[in-house]
Amino acid sequence: MNDLLIRRARLMDEPGTVDVAIKDGYIVAAGGGVAGSARQMIDAAGRLLIPAFVDAHTHLDKALTASREGVASLAEAIEDFQRRSRKMEKNDFLDRGRRVLKMALSHGTTAMRAHITVSEALGLRGIEAALELKREFAGKVELQVFAMAGEGEPVPASPLQELLEEALRLGADGLGGAPYLSEGMREWVDYIFALAGKYNVPIDLHVDETDAPTVASLEYIAAKTVQTGYQGRVVASHCCGLAAVDDARAAQAIAAVKDAGISVITLPSCELYLMGRQDRGLVRRGVTRVGELQAAGVNVAYASGNIRDAFRPFGNADMLEEALITAQVLQMGTPLELKKVLEMGTYNAAAAIGLNDYGIKAGGRADLVLLDASSPAEAIIGQVEKVCVIKGGRVAARNDKKSDIII
Ligand SMILES: [Zn+2]
């Protein structure tokens, strides 16, 4: 007997409806007229069933710390966090992280990559809390904890180097940082790749998060990826500078990114709030060249990034809300384009962070969201209810108190 049978569900790219049978956390059959009994049944009644959202870039440690004063720039937001983080205790990280993970789950996110700052001032308090949350939320939200090098630079024998390595020993899933901020960018990138190689973990870097026209760190990271055989295990987040270089330069960098098998994560809601702060009149958006990257065959996902902190005082850990912002800023408004946007927050994000067995197919993990819509366009435009969130074949969150879809 199956654990769960979802009847009459509409999928993103198939006409008509299908039935989806689930057993032991995985989809065993998906198609027309799937037979067999199940312990629990959901009648989707033609609603859209999508693989659960994957928020591939968040800062759980910073989330929900927005101050009343606000900040004037990215540099000020970084300083704001450095100042506050000195006083932050582990319980503070746990409380805020827990609230965000609950918000995310209720909005249909069942996998998340969190960049957690490691610095001399902060030590490993953020990492320890995130690893605790990872265990606490296992079975609800799959959390990837990435140690992000904060304040200072990981120069040889520095305390920061020691802390980053200790974070990996404690169980951090990967390494991150913002080497573009440093004059020693290349050494910095070399070090991250060496340490990641030593512990065999993936890399996810903040790349050229600046209004300036530059692809310096993007191109160096691409070259390093090929040189170290790290293709498919590196993510470049932001890549704002790529938007500002000329078209020929951009095409060159995009080709290098494609050759290196790097996934790009764009953070439109964060860029819109933080970038172009010095501009008057025509304010730059800072969002990277998503269309050109995709046309070149690069995997591009969107993510929420900062959730109610100094970097962005907005956000609800809601990937459907981020989809609407992404669609608007990327000028993707046709039904086909809106489907592509939804894929960027699901399939593409899952591929970027290396989730196996993702998708609605036999053998796929049963992490699903039933949306009160009949198409991706309707879901994004209408910001519809996430009727039911399923994680590992179990109903993990329900927002259908009025209707009665679970039989
Ligand atoms: Zn970030």
UniProtKB/TrEMBL annotation:
PROSITE patterns: TATD_1 (PS01137). The keyword ATP-binding does not apply. The keyword Membrane does not apply. Keywords: Hydrolase, Metal-binding. Pfam families: Amidohydro_3 (PF07969). InterPro entries: Amidohydro_3, DNase_TatD-rel_CS, Metal-dep_hydrolase_composite, Metal_Hydrolase, Metallo-hydrolase_Enzymes. Residues 40-98, 142-395 form the Amidohydrolase domain. Its EC number is 3.5.4.42. GO terms for molecular function: deaminase activity; hydrolase activity, acting on carbon-nitrogen (but not peptide) bonds, in cyclic amidines; metal ion binding; N-isopropylammelide isopropylaminohydrolase activity. It is an enzyme of class 3 (hydrolase). This is N-isopropylammelide isopropyl amidohydrolase.
